Amino acid sequence: MRTVEQVLTLMGGASAAAAHCGVGTEAIRKWRQARAIPPRHWPSVLAATGLALDDLPRADADPTTPSVQEPSMTPAPDRQATASAQADRAPPGATACLVLGNGAVFWGYGFGATGKRVGEVCFNTGMTGYQETLTDPSYAGQIITFTFPHIGNVGANVEDVEATTAAALGLVVKADLTEPSNYRATRHLDDWLKSHGMPGISGVDTRALTVMIRDGGPPNGVICHAPDGVFDLPALRAEAAGWPGLEGMDLAKEVSCRQSYSWDESLWAWGQGYGKQTAPKHKVVAVDYGAKRNILRCLADAGCEVVVVPADATAEEILRHGPDGVFLSNGPGDPAATGAYAVPAIRGVLEAGKPVFGICLGHQLLALALGAKTYKLERGHRGANQPVKDLATGRVEITSQNHGFAVDDKSLPEGVTVTHVSLFDGSNEGIACEAKRAFSVQYHPEASPGPSDSHHLFHRFTGMMAAG
């Protein structure tokens, strides 16, 4: 018996199948959700594919569907001795799996690109903005679990990307990808994922996986999409367990630009698209540790001429552009590893007296340059609904975040103050050093995706530059 996905492939895709059967793509989505093709469509499907009746997925054929429930999640190694060999076999119809470093296996249905990817498995609580999330360079080395069950309804387009190449390794979702229903959509998310070589898996109990990550921290994992349903679980388990993890890993160089370039595109406006900064008042050098495009747009929108330089640019190379201020961008990986080359450059900029503004990884690197330390969180902050308190005003802002490391408050030297704290776990979310005219925040004030509560920080930066 074939799976619904295999039948749709033979028919030329969801749109072609809908045309053959005289239905809309919403009906095809229901086929996927039910893992079966209704009997009234069998004649059309058989005519289009040449299959036999016994080949068609039917609701009465096999009630077993892959999910996080047993037998779809196999036991961890310490329980495998008493498990049957059947536990290591894919359930009927499964075309993808997520194998964790602790030996657990989540079965499901593959979409996007075929193949496998290994990295750190995390979760994101955002309800929308999945295309921006998947292209955020800060997600390099990570497989994203979306806690919101319905992903795909916005589709994909050419504007809502934060980098040319998608940074995330793969995605895990509860329900099948929904059909695009947004007026700005130009392609199906599945097609977009294929074009970026990113595999996905649906049918997973993402609540159970999220609890596992919440309680035990982000595990290593391998996401594997194999349309033939054949998986080498021992090899996948070994690969997941053997991945070294993000701690000690410098990923900024992998996602950074290779040479300097200018940026003048400003924020998006309804009915107009992206604008252009034609009369800048300040010149900013942005060090690209994995910069999101919308951060650069926010700088341009605030009146800045922006020159972007690679992550490993020296202080001399940064100052050669004659900036009024220096921006330290977001990015992936362990700040201590990236700091090997970034910290000396940042210290050189601080000694030159230039105002400095850092975000995310840039915040952590600024802290290291000022003499503080960083550490890996037990569980990272990822989503567009993270509450942060500004200690100076008492104001609480809802912020967009994506980080697995944090600044150690206790290690901050004299003259460096804590400005913001997380209301989730009390970890550091911002620092300032008045003597050096430098400040930074752990979260993403550009809000792409997310709320725009913190856009004012870009104007705080331009105010520092205007003060001379």
Output the keywords.
ligase; alpha/beta; ten-stranded mixed β-sheet; arginine biosynthesis; 468 residues; EC 6.3.5.5; pyrimidine biosynthesis; glutamine amidotransferase
Give the helix proportion (percent range): 25-40%
What's the count of strands?
A: 19
Poorly predicted runs of 5 or more residues: 61-87
Largest sheet: 10 strands, mixed
Q: What separation lies between the terminal Cα atoms?
A: 72 Å
SSE class = alpha/beta
The overall pLDDT average reads: 90
> What is the CA-atom radius of gyration, in angstroms?
24 Å
Number of helices: 14
What is the general shape? elongated
- List the quaternary state of the chains: single chain
Which band does the percent of strand residues land in? 25-35%
Spatial sequence of strands, sheet with the most strands? 8-12-11-13-14-19-18-17-15-16
What is the fold's blueprint, element by element?
Layout: H1 4-10, H2 14-21, H3 25-34, H4 42-49, E1 96-100, E2 105-112, E3 115-124, H5 130-134, E4 142-146, E5 170-172, H6 189-195, E6 199-202, H7 206-216, E7 220-225, H8 233-242, H9 252-255, E8 261-263, E9 265-269, E10 273-276, E11 282-288, H10 293-301, E12 304-310, H11 315-319, E13 325-328, H12 335-351, E14 356-359, H13 361-369, E15 374-390, E16 396-407, E17 417-422, E18 428-433, E19 438-441, H14 456-466
Parallel strand pairs: 3-4, 4-5, 5-6, 11-12, 11-13, 13-14, 14-19
Antiparallel strand pairs: 1-2, 1-7, 2-6, 3-7, 8-12, 9-10, 15-16, 15-17, 17-18, 18-19
Helix pairs in contact: 2-3, 12-13
